[in-house]
Amino acid sequence: MKAIVVGAGIGGLATALRLAHRGYAVEVLERGERVGGRCRSLEIQGCRFDVGPTLLMMLGPLRRLFEDIGEPLERHLALTLCDPTYRVFFADGSRLDPSPNLALMTERVEAMCGSEEARRIGPFFERLRRLAEAAVPAFVERDYAGPWSLFGPKELSLLLRHRLLANLSKTVDRTFRDERLRMLFSFQTLYLGLSPKEAPWVYALLAWMECGEGVWYPQGGLAQVSETLARLTEARGATIRTGCAVRRIEGGGVHLANGETRAADVVVCNADLPYARRELLGESPKRLRASCSALCLYLDYEGELPGLLHHNVFFGPDFEANLRAVFNGAPMPEDPAFYACLSARNDPTAAPPGHANLSLLIPCPNLDHPLGETQLATLRNCVLDRLRREVGLDPTRIAGERAVGPNEWATELNLDRGAAFGLSHHFLQSAAFRPSNRSRSNPRLVFVGASTRPGNGVPMALISAELAERRVLEILRR
Question: Taking the model in full, what pTM does it have?
Fold first, then answer.
């Protein structure tokens, strides 16, 4: 039995690895020259950057994958816990270094916000822990027969008990009075390209993953996860072909851009779902809601930036206005929120001596509300000016630079409307309402990755691969 996997992102590679480990013949076809999709690396004059995700959270799905293929995770990936998780820079000049150590976290919140707010940290984290224990197995790590599956007796009980569909931002606002803590425990939905003002409470899981379970860094960068999965897949007899574009999927086979046809018993598609349906299947899919986009800057900086940790989050003075700009097309603020990564803090191989590999992620609208080149340049300069004021960055010491914005996400990775985080995760595109991994038009086709269940991010893509594997085995048994 043979399976073809179209796309070598995390979801595609994990599915290929699982099937190859079972003894199936597997061929992975990747349009780009490197594996990883959004989870790949970029080099500028000796500085190495992760192009997409830079934080590894929720290790359970990754550990489960390695257990399922009989490999010790630590033999292949050297993982370092980031503690502090990151440094947060607030517009009023205050800073906070959150920690997965509850005692330290409480102490630091008390120093910044006072004892009354600090007393709320323990009960809040306990609520997040109970939420994760209930919601992850019941709603995240499962497939659904249909939307009605979300409303069985067990599911309704959990929905009501944990108020999973309550508004995340409003729930956090009722818990904390300090606006800085309200932002700190709700902004994580931006990783999904979703405003916390629109997010259900269940997405507080992200705050628990960061502040409760902790953030990890694999030595060599997040791209090491992709490259390790590819290596283990090939070691089990699978073939991975890069620079191999698929033009069309039909039945159990594919037509390549070079005119070649490849046949298989089942096809797994890891391309972004709207693109796959429109371009690879020739369908006219209904328009789904896309996430926001991001302007990402990768800077080879000559010098030291001692004020920055590995991970850093910057909030502007008006977070709500920032959200309106990113998600509703309002004008971008002069002092936007953004994320800064300096992985050389934990991995000296990521930058030459005397240099810093500084990557910046600035949330911005997708191509439904496109920013022009002048607006993107202004956005870049505003962020560099904030870094100049806060940590002493000197723009004249930027020795090399690469920018990836909405247009690049659309053309280089086929992400619909340049949405850097794929499909939006608002309620009607979450859990049972998120697009299924089953194709309606092709019974021998399975979807995997960020735009199908359960959603975006490395752990979600790994869970998506588990669900895709089950679906493939159903097809092959038939």
Answer: 0.95
